[in-house]
Amino acid sequence: MGMAYALGRPRKFNYLKASSLDEALRLLREYGDAKVLAGGMSLMPMLKLRMTEVKYLIDILGIDELRYVKSDGNYLRIGALVSHNDVAMNKLINEKAKILSEAAWHIADVQVRNLGTIGGSLAHADPAANYYPALLALDAEVVVRGIGTERVVKVSDLYKGPYVTDLRPDELITEVRIPLSGFEGVYEFFRRGGASFPSVIVAVTYQERDGVITSSRIAIGAVYPEPVLIRDNLVGMGVKEVGAKAVEIVNSVFSSIDAKPLEDTHAPGDYRVRVAKNLLVKSLTSISTGSIHKLKTPVREGISEWRDTEGKVEYVGDLVRVRINVNGQWIEDLVEPRMLLLDFLRKHGFVEVKRGCDEGKCGACTVLLDGKAVKSCMVPAVRASGHYVTTIRGLSKGIELHPIQKAFIEEFAMQCGFCTHGFMMVTYDYLTNIDPTADDETLKLSIKNICRCTGYINIIKAIKRASKYLSSANT
Ligand SMILES: Cc1cc2nc3c(=O)[nH]c(=O)nc-3n(C[C@H](O)[C@H](O)[C@H](O)COP(=O)(O)OP(=O)(O)OC[C@H]3O[C@@H](n4cnc5c(N)ncnc54)[C@H](O)[C@@H]3O)c2cc1C
Ligand code: FES
Ligand code: FES
């Protein structure tokens, strides 16, 4: 066992599953030292880096009652388990709260967006999280449930500090609600580097009557330890006026903020503030000129499901029984609950699946889980029990290459080949489920796998060539 493996493995935990909200709340109360696992896209890296530990992990992804998008005339209601990709693409969210879907599009990459959930992101309360500025600007609320209790909390009151929220340990976010009061809005985003977190987010919304602003909300995220919300400072100004007054408005906004900016290797504090000021000027100018850039992205009617066919987790001593269908064949094993899907697959001979960064960034370990790309270093094998995993061997038919393999070979899109499997798997999901046309904007926001050898030009050419092969096969 190599060092990277030991470091990339969480401390031991017990794995439980809840199939209803009531069951999840009961388990949380009963087991005390427990956390729920939603998408796992923040909790798994923290467990693997051993920045946190937990005795009981309660998997809630199978709770269907927390996966919906609906509108009731007053609110747009989004269940806590709706994935980032569904927030990005759902038709109703795009129609009623476009800046929220834009926020979701900017999260990481296809793989993180397939599993990560809106409720999990809010509960995790990363100061750079994409949703907070959008939801603050939209004046959103969350519904929070405990055993026999329900309360509604403004998103502005939910965040209490970096990684700290108003939630009690035995409560869960069940819904995000956005008032349907007809906000116009802009979402501006700046990040340095592939699937990294943003360095600056600016969201602005306003309402107007006869060209005069009657309410406004400016939210700034990823710059300070807390997302900042400034209410109604544009009220009384003409919509067409705010561009000309942008510098004055920006100076007054930033002089009212009394917080030290965040710093990391991507962006020092003063740089973040400068970029934030520029993005706010850009937002105000685009509002006044009516030239707000809205992401042109694919839209879908429904949302995806997570089918749990296994029922209860079966323990044999400290081990759990896991049954995963890989490339059409069921494989059964007894494993520690902390075993990663990546290690399960490699143990059973699927060594085309590679361990790269081991922290969810590079995508070398990508496989399809029920047809969607996931990073197998971020999924406990037991979570995949009863589900279908596909590697490239499951896509090609014997010696006949899959069109994606052909495209990668024909474009010379590899050197050492270490990243190639992950790239091909995420390309499959992207072209099949997200954007068959491989439009530059969606491609840039979706595939962020890392290649250490080639540069990316030939990989992009291969994805575009694969798009042509697949579309001609479908016509
Ligand atoms: C490589 C990478 C890049 C990323 N980049 C970005 C980015 O650019 N922007 C961004 O916003 N995010 C980013 N993320 C984080 C991602 O959005 C996560 O999905 C999100 O922060 C957590 O959601 P989750 O469903 O995965 O929650 P989990 O990881 O399962 O849980 C996170 C925490 O919330 C708790 N929790 C989960 N659901 C609930 C609930 N309903 N009620 C109460 N508590 C709950 C869990 O117990 C845990 O403590 C990135 C993640 C990775 C791995
Ligand atoms: S090894 Fe899984 S994302 Fe890098
Ligand atoms: S071809 Fe070597 S890492 Fe991509």
Brief account:
By secondary structure, the protein is an alpha+beta fold. Helix content is 33%, strand content 22%. The protein folds into 3 domains: 3-62 and 305-390, Beta-grasp domain (Ubiquitin-like (UB roll), Roll); 68-289, Uridine Diphospho-n-acetylenolpyruvylglucosamine Reductase, domain 3, CATH 3.30.465.10; 392-474, [2Fe-2S]-binding domain (DNA polymerase, domain 1), CATH 1.10.150.120.
Molecular structure report:
This protein has three domains: about 5-60 and about 305-390, Roll (Ubiquitin-like (UB roll)); about 70-290, Uridine Diphospho-n-acetylenolpyruvylglucosamine Reductase, domain 3 (2-Layer Sandwich); about 390-475, [2Fe-2S]-binding domain (DNA polymerase, domain 1), CATH 1.10.150. It has 18 helices and 20 strands. A hairpin with a 2-residue loop joins strand 16 (about 320-325) and strand 17. Helix content is about 35%, strand content about 20%. It has about 475 residues and is α+β, with helices and mostly antiparallel strands. Strands 15, 16, 17, 18, 19 and 20 form a six-stranded mixed sheet that branches. A five-stranded antiparallel sheet has the order 4-5-10-6-7. Strands 11-12-13-14 form a four-stranded antiparallel sheet, with helices on both faces. Helix 11 packs antiparallel against helix 12 and helix 16 (about 420-435) packs across helix 18 (about 455-475). The chain binds flavin-adenine dinucleotide (FAD) and FE2/S2 (inorganic) cluster (2 copies). The site of one FE2/S2 (inorganic) cluster (FES) has 11 residues, from loops.
